[in-house]
């Protein structure tokens, strides 16, 4: 017997500023670190960028009307720091504040709950130039000041705040794999920067709580639960290494303000542990989030990796040609391998709805926090047919099975507050361009020259409309 979804369950959908807004230099917006990064040769699929994106900046009313038609209960979007503070600090850009204020009002007009991500990777370029961005402790104050502007301006109208999106992803890609800005490949710098992000996140969480703003705050964490290949004991140890260093290393900090011992010991042995200053651990221990946000796309399968085995690389399948992914891992620690039991997407991501149930169960048991699924979705090549229909049956099947897994987890006893699909409209995939589509709403990019970017509802749009209408009883 499955338990029903709670009556006020937040059926939602998510996006991020750089991936939808466009208008990248308009109305006083400052540069972000992505603006130049996408211009480096070979970094993104066919040099794709978010300069126009899907022009949500100008079309937000049209997009919100579509959300209302679908019946969304919440829309998760991010605020571009450099729209609010073009230099990342100092002078406020009123037009930037106005844009998000209008977007929030437009959502509320239709009864859609805004869920704001404070940081979704688009760091103001000036802070990178000034002091090296996340590598300097100066950013803790700047990030907190920026968040305070948002809380002071918007928090009387809304309830859900995501502090930082996928810290593990932007840190690993930015400082170890060199595949996100600032394109560094140095584990020691990575763990140092990561520690500073932890402090900045804690500082904002603390400010929110002590400032008595209404609502809830939590991070969005990218969690791909790890399974041991073939139940082989040596693979189980490798899997422990992965769970520690890909998941608990972040979530333990958020919830308990401490690094997992074994993972930290491994960093110390390798001489790459972050320097912890006086006061750091106290701040981390006193900034527990109200919920854990989780972005779930896939599970990983892990095997032992010899000392001369494969290493990590920023290379991956960014083209959508199935089977292009090479094995990666940390010599002596683990490697990620194919799961013989699971299908994959064209980008070689495993399709594993049960993995979502696993991930909800593990978070609930280890952290005892309510959970919001802040992202889940299927990237696919969709085709706009001659009658302007899009039959994205794969996406419907993917989402349907994942919703069922959420309901199973709720029946198990996990407290899940909401579920946001990635994404509402099609949008830019950071490294995979526009051909990897996630939306309920198709965006015709063949017209990009004329900036038409017409919106067409896909079959999944109507499917989710039914899910929401029936509170998950489809
Ligand atoms: C998450 C990000 C999103 C989004 C999504 C899909 O990691 O938070 O911003 O991009 O993944 O990933 P991709 O675009 O790589 O397919």
Automatic annotation (TrEMBL):
The entry's keywords: Glycosidase, Hydrolase
UniProt GO BP: carbohydrate catabolic process
Hydrolase listed as a keyword: yes
Record-level Gene Ontology MF annotations: beta-glucosidase activity
UniProt xrefs under SUPFAM superfamilies: (Trans)glycosidases
A cellular component annotation (GO) from this entry: cytosol
Location of the active site: 375 (nucleophile)
Superkingdom, natural source: Bacteria
Keyword Hydrolase carried by entry: yes
Family per similarity comment: Belongs to the glycosyl hydrolase 1 family.
Protein name: Glycoside hydrolase family 1 protein
Native source species: Vagococcus intermedius
């Amino acid at each position: 017997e499955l338990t029903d979804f709670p009556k006020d369950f937040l059926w939602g959908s998510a996006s991020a500023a750089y991936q939808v807004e466009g208008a990248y230099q308009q109305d006083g917006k400052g540069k972000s670190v992505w603006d130049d990064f996408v211009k480096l040769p070979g970094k993104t699929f066919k040099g794709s960028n978010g300069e126009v994106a899907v022009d949500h900046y100008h079309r937000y009313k049209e997009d919100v009307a579509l959300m209302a038609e679908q019946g969304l209960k919440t829309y998760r979007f991010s605020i571009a720091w450099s729209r609010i503070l073009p230099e990342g600090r100092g002078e406020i850009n009123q037009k930037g504040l106005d844009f998000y204020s209008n977007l929030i009002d437009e959502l509320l007009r239709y009864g859609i709950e805004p869920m704001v991500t404070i940081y979704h990777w688009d760091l103001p370029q000036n802070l990178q130039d000034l002091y090296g961005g996340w590598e300097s402790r100066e950013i803790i104050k700047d990030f907190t000041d920026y968040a305070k502007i948002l809380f002071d301006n918007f928090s009387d109208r809304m309830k859900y705040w995501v502090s930082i999106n996928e810290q593990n992803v932007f840190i690993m890609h930015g400082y170890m794999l060199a595949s996100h800005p600032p394109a560094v490949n140095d584990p020691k710098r990575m763990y140092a920067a990561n520690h500073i992000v932890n402090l900045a996140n804690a500082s904002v969480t603390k400010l929110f709580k002590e400032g008595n703003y209404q609502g809830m705050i939590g991070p969005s964490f990218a969690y791909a639960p790890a399974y041991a290949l073939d139940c082989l004991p040596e693979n189980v140890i490798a899997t422990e290494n992965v769970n520690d260093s890909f998941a608990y290393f972040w979530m333990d900090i958020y919830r308990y303000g401490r690094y997992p011992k074994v993972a930290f010991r491994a960093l110390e042995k390798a001489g790459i542990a972050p320097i912890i200053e006086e006061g750091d651990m106290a701040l981390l221990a006193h900034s527990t989030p109200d919920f854990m946000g989780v972005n779930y796309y896939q599970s990983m399968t892990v095997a032992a990796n010899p000392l001369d085995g494969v290493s990590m690389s920023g290379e991956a399948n960014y083209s959508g040609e199935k089977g292009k992914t090479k094995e990666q891992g940390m010599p002596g620690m683990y490697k990620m391998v194919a799961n013989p039991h699971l299908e994959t997407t064209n980008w070689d991501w495993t399709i594993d709805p049960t993995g979502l149930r696993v991930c909800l169960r593990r978070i609930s048991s280890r952290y005892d926090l309510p959970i919001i699924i802040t992202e889940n979705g299927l990237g696919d090549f969709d085709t706009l047919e001659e009658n302007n229909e899009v039959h994205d049956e794969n996406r419907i099947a993917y989402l349907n099975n994942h919703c069922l897994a959420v309901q199973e987890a709720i029946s198990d006893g996990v407290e899940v507050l909401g579920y946001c699909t990635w994404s509402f409209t099609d949008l830019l995939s950071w490294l995979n361009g526009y051909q990897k589509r996630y939306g309920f709403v198709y965006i015709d990019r063949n017209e990009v020259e004329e900036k038409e970017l017409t919106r067409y509802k896909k079959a999944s749009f109507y499917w989710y409309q039914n899910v929401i209408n029936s509170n998950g009883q489809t």
